[in-house]
Design a protein that fits this description.
This protein is of the alpha+beta class. It has 39 helices and 15 strands.
Length: 945
Amino acid sequence: MTLHQQASPAPDSDRDRPDRFHPVASGPLICADTEIFDAAAVDAQIAAAADNAPDNAALRGALVQILQAQQKAGRAAIAAAFAEQPFDARPLTRSYTFLTDGLVMAALKVASTTLHPRPNPTAAEHIAVIGVGGYGRGEMAPYSDVDLLFLSPYKITAWAESVIESMLYILWDLKLKVGHSSRTIKDCIRLGQEDFTIRTAMLEHRFLAGHAPLAEKLDQRLKSDLFSGTGHDFIEAKLEERENRHRKQGERYMVEPNVKEGKGGLRDLQSLYWIAKYIHGVHESAELVPLGVFQPEEFATFVTAEDFLWAVRAHLHLLAGRATEQLTFDTQVQIAERMGYKDLAGRRGVEFFMQDYFRQATAVGDLTRIFLTKLEADHLKSEPLLERIFRRRRKVKPGFVVINNRIGVKDPDSFLADKLNLLRLFDEGLRTGMLIHPDAMRLVTANLDLIDDGMRNDREAQRIFLGLLLKHGNPERALRRMNELGVLAAFVPEFEPIVAMMQFNMYHSYTVDEHTIQCIANLAQIEKAELVEELPIASGILERGVNRKVLYVALLLHDIGKGRPEDHSILGAQIARRVAPRLGLNKSDSETVEWLVRYHLLMSDMAQKRDIADPRTVRDFAKAVQTVKRLDLLTVLTVCDIRGVGPNVWNNWKAALLRGLYRQTRRALDDGMEVLNRENRGTEAKKALREALPDWPKAVLKAETARHYPPYWQGLHLTAHVDFARMLRALEEAHDPGEVMIHLHPDEDRDATRACFVMADHPGIFARLAGALALVGANVVDARSYTTKDGYVTDAFWIQDSDGHPYEADRLPRLTQMIHKTLKGEVITRDALKSRDKIKKREMAFNVPTHISFDNDGSEIYTIIEVDTRDRPGLLYDLAHALASANVYIANAVIATYGEQVVDTFYVKDMFGLKYYAESKQRFLETRLRMAITAGARRAKDGKP
């Protein structure tokens, strides 16, 4: 008898035979079984090895070699077949189980019959080998754990212990990750009562070999003593486990999801199966259809989602060569290629792949909701599973009913007779605060075809839809449910392309549709005065009053043009021109929405990519927005947009920049552009400095206020002016021309540390400072460089640590010391950066083209060079060094980082103090900058110069 064949029935006395094996047998394999595990060949090789081995140690070594060869061949055969059928997940999981069965049983057979023979074991020495967990279920990814239970009737005997130990050593030598336990039936019952993880694992036990009556007794005792009557506790435990898992992995759909544990992942589907098996005793998920838990089409969705997720997980394991579940950016690209996704129409294949992934994850969420609510109705009517917070029941409008504290449809035919009910259902959910019953959701999903052009242009439908956004103060829940059920895309068809659309970058944490909903959720929070302390400007704007209809519709549509080759702001504005009137907005409001969508990035770009201390920046922005009304709307939209990007994107630095730009622009619009005059601002700053240093002699103060050029006074805060004044005075008193004064100050209001430097001026000092800061691992987020009339340089850099936070105060002395050493030349910056420039593996998949532009209109004094490229350590130093070597004077640099992309903006003049107007000079500088980027990118890729 071969190792993988199931034995024919035998008398009870024969059921301890070590060759009585029960491998997984249901369903097709991905290739021929002998390609996966050739049991007959393995039997013959083991028999030959047993004849020739001088001792047990030699036999075990020979067995490991035989099984390693078979394991390697089996894995190769499965992987090759999967490469040809990259979506064929079910045969793959069974094939890996079949291979594992062969290895496990071969190890058991040799351990029990050759290494430790016991032809007639006593009753105490009976043993049953049982697969549990995923292995017991017969679903294995390429590098899944092998979980084994060694069951004995009483305390484990010395013989059984020897068999188990030898078997495990063989499996470990095969590099299998084996989880194992040796227990009696009593142990299993006791531990299962204490630990739901153990209980779940035993729920999926599968007898492999050994004493069958013992395994059968375990099965009976589990059902009678552990599972029976404990369904409520088990369900509660699984739901709590699910909530904790989602909280840990990210509640919404994160762009680097965990295929197994994340929201909408395999574990969610497995949880459904576990609960169904526990409550209904099913052995296959297909059995849920005749039980009425799922409709046939819903079960088809279950199968599709499960197949897709298993395929992705298998590719992930095969790529990594180990068990890994995180779908990182680099693996997303590779898996998309393996599964046949292609670049098309301005979008990468990986983005199409991830859009499919998130659509399947959404489907899993829908199935979970349907299943749990059905379970609640059938088994736990007194305590709804999904309703975690007690809600006071409110009366529902005619046509709706309350079922287990959820809104349901009283009569489906009457409901569908008025197609506007497809929207009223969600309005009623927001009005009452109740969830919608899955049966009602099923009804909506099955009748989306009722939402046609007639309904979209119906004024009452428009009123209901706008009411969802404006009336109840919490549109997020309705929008998300409408999006998941397809109602949002049906009512606004232009929204459909961005549903589950992933933006393949490190900046956005959510899919485009989820980002849109997050933005609207932020707006609702600000409206409810929940963020007054964190967002005083936006909160004040909403408190004073704005056109809420315009703001909500603009947020709904602001990214609707994404995913096409065109600029999404321009395309989005064109779409908004069509959609806004269709949502019931008048001509004036529609034009404002169109403007907001077209320029929704303007304020963010001005604040983060330009020097807002430069009067021209504020003047240009004020001319663009034209009115305070538009400024207010754009400010709130910008805040919501940035906060909706991801949980850690908004910070005090961005807040300070936006507040500064808003206040200056508001003042210019209210009082006229002349308030931006440099001289007026300089006079105010000098007066403030004199008041801040009342004990300084007048002559010293006069010298200090006279030594700086006008840009210095408008570009820095009073606290920086004070620091520089004291540092300059100390430097002069030191009488050392080579001295460098450094002062680091935590600027917690801006989430950064301000690093101030004073020294004698000389060419290339900005680049040297940028290099010194790069060497100590500081990320520069802003920089200002000013020269005095008497030959000093006063440079201010705002820096953050690797986590994007200001440096702790106790780290500042050491940081200062390291910067001093670098500036004194004790460390050669370019050489030292070589080992620090390497880009992380997960970030290698991003393609960020380099764009360099020259702007002579954005500043009265300087040429603005904007370098948009791939971010990496040391980039600012490389760019600044390239400019310095070309005799370019850098006045200041503004750094805006968007994940793997960075925009470094330099305000520069030539050595004669003039702008770079000549195209030949611009091309020369662009060439130098591109050479610096290319050389640095090469270092970052392979760590070599």
